[in-house]
Specification:
Number of strands of chain B: 6
Distance between the termini of chain A: 56 Å
Shape of chain B: globular
Radius of gyration of chain B: 16 Å
Strand content of chain B: 15-25%
Number of strands of chain A: 22
Helix content of chain A: 25-40%
Helix content of chain B: 25-40%
Oligomer: heterodimer
CATH topology of the largest domain in chain A: Rossmann fold
Largest interface: A-B, 64 and 61 residues
CATH architecture of chain B: 3-Layer(aba) Sandwich
CATH superfamily of chain B: Pyruvate-ferredoxin oxidoreductase, PFOR, domain III
Largest sheet of chain B: 6 strands, mixed
Number of domains of chain A: 4
Distance between the termini of chain B: 29 Å
Largest sheet of chain A: 7 strands, mixed
Structural class of chain B: alpha/beta
CATH topology of chain B: Pyruvate-ferredoxin Oxidoreductase, domain 3
Structural class of chain A: alpha/beta
Number of helices of chain A: 20
Number of domains of chain B: 1
Strand content of chain A: 15-25%
Number of helices of chain B: 8
CATH class of the largest domain in chain A: Alpha Beta
């Protein structure tokens, strides 16, 4: 046993290792990505990046039915993609243990919505554990496999951003020796068609009843009694906020299993305390359960449905306490994220702005192309939607196709853009789809994907040929451009918009942050030649600013991409 | 001891995560309980980034709220100003005097405020340092994070040797000498 400072996600990976997990298949998504990155550092487990979360979940399901302990990880919106296998593997149950990791993002640090994944546990009738720190991330991961096998069910491990991305101390131990179980053919269990699924639903309901009984007594749900004037019912990181704010001035019921929830345990705790507060981020899941039990509790009447909580928020809501603080007297300009200096997406978005097209956007770093000054994206919904939504737009009026494009990253295109492209080819709209191929999954921090030619461990892998793929699904017009070349990029976009049939443009240039990308020396502005026209500012490069009326390039950021050089009509930007 | 709360703030890409790892490791080698909370993903891309480090006998919450920070380490002037409300009364700020224009300043919609450091000094105990110049002197503009941790080390209870050991163990081997030099330049500034 050794105590280590582990990131929550790293602790989950360690838990997978210690639990004897054999197969890990995931799709990257903040804040879940590092679970699988760390898992891949253990040679004892097979780990992979799958093309999307549905595939990842099905890979894990197949491995579990084959008798191994298996895991798949994803962010909250990834569970929407993986929901199809989830709801039915809830019926088949497992052979080897199956754990599905999902990381919610209260506060939307890096997400397009703030959904509460606990509803999925209720809806699919699958047990869900929620750790509060790295120690519990490790312990609960191991426990999730035991419960999966004990109850013959998948188990969901739910994290939130602050648990996934906080480091705290956890005790590590050795890997358990768990042999792969024998697979025995059993169609009544594994072939879900009506005749088999109807009796299986009965089994699911019986299983939930047994799990509730288990949750009444197991130490996954713990009580701590101090002052009983205030009783707090909570789970996950909210427990830490409550402990910090209230200390021994309250008693606590901490629910490590958030589905199914115990009944008697909650009623007994509520009866011991005077005033009960349910502290949970996002939706009133535990609160509604308490109310169903006939308990009088405070919850969303004093706490918000929105965003992340904190110790200050708890102290204010329950104790009415506020903290004093200082502030400066001037307005502080906001600092939202921006496309990096040297980002290959910049040239592409500038060309789209010049073409004045409607841009159907997607999920990735390039979503930042929606911000000023590029201001080049009209819609962003979910992964893959750029392509299919463009097709829908162009079916409203074929003329739309001359003035609209979809932009989608290489990894996102493989995730679910390719199905939209097939729709465009099959149902024939003259849509122009642009794949922003930067040779990596960018926003989540550089993960390999099927287009990069490397596995999660960096070993050589079969590489999807996007050009051949597009031809194979029936797209005849396929062009490849270098987005660092502004004129070529704009000319090709213009030509493909004019074409009366579907086209695919691949805007290809590796992410400037990749270690394998060689940078040019930083560029400099010749102040004598600079006419202060600010043309170079139109591309929104964070390395360029105006100092004393002249353009200036920050040498710490500039990678010498020369996109700004093409903007300057006075040759003032020099190598 | 009571829980000690440190905020590390800066601009995505400045290396704030390494600084928090250094501090976290220094705290553990002294035998404390610790929690470090980071932000990954989209907000890293040149946006305003915050890391919280809290240590003591038993730490519950991994985050720091307004009026709670004992120390703010700011990698950039404007970010020091932005997070001043998080400083506890009597708390300390170590700020790198480097300025990085947010996009609204670049595009001319907003102006970078003047006299940031002066005003911070009126409101808090501030140590201002040109960490970028010292990092360049050490051999890389990327070493701003380690220079700042050198400055911070002077104000914390852990010994200089303990800090240097943590730097050696935390940074990649090929950048060890550069980072030790950066640490010394910060420490001796």
């Amino acid at each position: 046993m050794a105590k280590k400072l582990l990131l929550g996600n790293e602790a989950v990976a360690r838990g997978l290792f210690e639990a004897g997990c054999n197969v890990v298949s995931s799709y990257p998504g903040t804040p879940s990505t590092e679970i699988t990155e760390y898992a891949a550092t253990y040679d004892e487990m097979y780990s992979e990046w799958a093309p999307n979360e549905k595939v990842a979940c099905e890979v894990a399901v197949g491995a579990a039915i084959a008798g191994a302990r298996a895991f798949c990880g994803m962010k909250h919106v990834g569970l929407n993609v993986a929901a199809d296998p989830l709801f039915t593997v809830a019926y088949t149950g497992v052979n080897g243990g199956l754990v599905i990791g999902v990381a919610d993002d209260p506060g939307m640090h890096s997400s397009q919505n703030e959904q509460d994944s606990r509803h999925y546990a209720q809806a699919s009738k699958v047990m869900m554990l929620e750790p509060a720190d790295s120690k519990e991330c490790l312990e609960y991961t191991k426990k999730a496999f035991e419960l999966s096998e004990k109850f013959d069910t998948p188990v969901i491990l739910r994290l939130t951003t602050r648990v996934a991305h906080s480091r705290s101390l956890a005790e590590t131990s050795d890997r358990a020796d768990i042999p792969v179980k024998e697979y025995v053919k059993n169609p009544q269990k594994y072939v879900m068609m009506p005749a088999n699924a109807i009796p299986k639903h009965v089994v699911v309901e019986e299983r939930i009843a047994k799990q509730i009984e288990f949750c009444e007594t197991d130490d996954i749900n713990t009580t701590e009694y101090y002052d009983k004037k205030i009783g707090v019912i909570t789970a996950g990181n909210c427990y830490n906020y409550a402990k910090e704010a209230l200390g021994k001035n309250a008693s606590y019921l901490k629910l490590g299993c958030v589905y199914p929830l115990p009944e008697k345990k909650i009623i007994d705790f509520a009866n011991e305390c005077e005033t009960i507060y349910v502290i949970e981020e996002l939706d009133p899941v535990i609160e509604n359960h308490c109310k169903k039990l006939g308990l009088k509790v405070h919850g969303k009447d004093v706490f918000t449905l929105l965003g992340e909580y904190s110790q200050a928020l708890v102290a204010k809501a329950i104790l009415g306490e506020t903290r004093e603080s200082e502030a400066v007297d001037f307005d502080i300009p906001r600092r939202p994220p921006v496309l990096c200096a040297g980002c290959p997406h910049r040239g592409l978005f500038y060309a789209l702005k010049q073409e004045k097209v409607t841009v159907s956007g997607d999920i990735g770093c390039y979503t930042l192309g929606a911000l000023q000054p590029l201001d080049s994206i009209d819609t962003v919904i979910c992964m893959g939607a750029s392509v299919s939504a463009l097709h829908g737009r162009n079916k409203v009026n074929p003329e739309n196709a001359k003035k609209s494009v979809a932009v989608i990253g290489d990894s996102t295109f493989i995730h679910s853009g390719v199905t939209g492209l097939i729709d465009i080819a099959y149902n024939n709209s003259a849509s122009t789809v642009i794949v922003l191929d930067n040779s990596i999954t960018g926003m989540t921090g550089h993960q390999q994907n099927p287009t990069t030619g490397k596995t999660i461990k960096g070993d050589p892998a079969t590489q999807v040929d996007i050009v051949a793929l597009a031809h194979a699904v029936g797209i005849k017009r396929v062009k490849v451009v270098d987005p660092y070349n502004l004129k070529e990029t704009r000319d090709v976009i213009h030509e493909e918009l004019e074409a009366d049939e579907p086209s695919l443009i691949i805007s290809r240039r590796p992410c400037a942050l990749l270690k394998t990308v060689k940078h040019n020396p930083p560029l400099k502005v010749n102040k004598d030649k600079c006419k202060s026209c600010k043309m170079c500012m139109k591309i929104g490069c964070p390395a360029i600013s105006m100092k004393d009326g002249k353009a200036e390039i920050d040498f710490t950021q500039c990678v010498g991409c020369n996109v700004c050089t093409q903007m300057c009509k006075f040759d003032a930007i020099e190598a | 001891m009571n829980t000690y709360s440190v905020m590390i703030v800066g601009v995505g890409g400045q290396g704030t995560l390494l600084a928090s790892r250094l501090l976290g490791n220094a705290v553990i080698s002294a035998g404390y309980d610790v929690k470090v909370s980071e932000v990954h993903g989209m907000s890293q891309r040149g946006g305003s980034v915050i890391t919280y480090v809290r240590y003591g006998e038993e730490v519950h919450s991994p985050i720091i709220e307004k009026g709670e920070a004992d120390l703010i380490i700011a990698f950039e002037q404007l970010e020091a100003a932005r997070y001043l409300p998080f400083l506890k009364k009597g708390g300390k700020i170590v700020v790198n005097t480097q300025k990085i224009d947010p996009m609204s300043v670049v595009t001319g919609v907003a102006e970078y405020p003047a006299g940031v450091i002066e005003q911070l000094k009126e409101k808090a105990d501030v140590t201002a340092i040109d960490a970028l110049s010292l990092a360049v002197e050490a051999g890389s503009s990327k070493a701003v994070n380690v220079v700042l941790m050198g400055v911070v080390a002077k104000h914390m209870e852990f010994s200089k040797d303990a800090w240097k050991k943590v730097v050696e163990e935390t940074v990649p081997a090929k950048f060890k000498e550069l980072n030790l030099k950066a640490f010394d330049l910060g420490y001796n500034s």
